């Protein structure tokens, strides 16, 4: 979800996957992009819960994203324009303009500590 809102791969500045894994386990999450709708932010945070049983399942996630999409589709043009005008897009572009080709990899890590949830101020 973060990749959709930012247009970037999460933790793109980390060179070593082990560093990423340990930071995520310790509650570090990517900084949420300015201008991300509140409903989408909240859903993303639910998906980041350290306890997998507290995360939404695929059906719930799909339904909530559809609801968010419908909300914005049904919004009046004036209200939508007002929301867009309030975004500081220069800040969004400034923070997320670098790009780097990324591919998915599978890693096996053993003896990892118990995952923790992110806390306010613990983002990169």
UniProtKB/TrEMBL annotation:
Listed SUPFAM superfamilies: Protein kinase-like (PK-like) (SSF56112)
Gene3D superfamilies for this protein: Transferase(Phosphotransferase) domain 1
Biased composition (Polar residues): 96-106
Residue ranges of domain Serine-threonine/tyrosine-protein kinase catalytic in the record: 1-64
GO molecular function: protein kinase activity
Location of the region described as Disordered in the Swiss-Prot/TrEMBL record: 96-124
Membrane-crossing residue ranges in chain numbering: none
Protein name (record): Serine-threonine/tyrosine-protein kinase catalytic domain-containing protein
Taxonomic source organism: Rhizophagus irregularis (strain DAOM 197198w) (Glomus intraradices)
Lineage, broadest ranks: Eukaryota, Fungi, Fungi incertae sedis, Mucoromycota, Glomeromycotina
């Amino acid at each position: 979800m973060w990749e959709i809102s930012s247009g970037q791969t999460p933790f793109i500045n980390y060179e070593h996957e082990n560093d990423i894994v340990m930071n995520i386990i310790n509650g570090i999450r990517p900084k949420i992009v300015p201008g991300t709708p509140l409903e989408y932010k909240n859903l993303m945070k639910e998906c980041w819960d350290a306890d997998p049983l507290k995360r939404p399942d695929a059906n719930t996630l799909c339904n909530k994203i559809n609801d968010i999409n419908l909300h914005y589709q049904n919004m009046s043009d004036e209200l939508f324009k007002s929301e867009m005008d309030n975004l500081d897009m220069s800040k969004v572009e400034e923070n997320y303009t670098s790009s780097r080709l990324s591919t998915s990899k599978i890693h096996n890590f053993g003896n990892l500590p118990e995952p923790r949830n992110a806390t306010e101020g613990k983002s990169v």
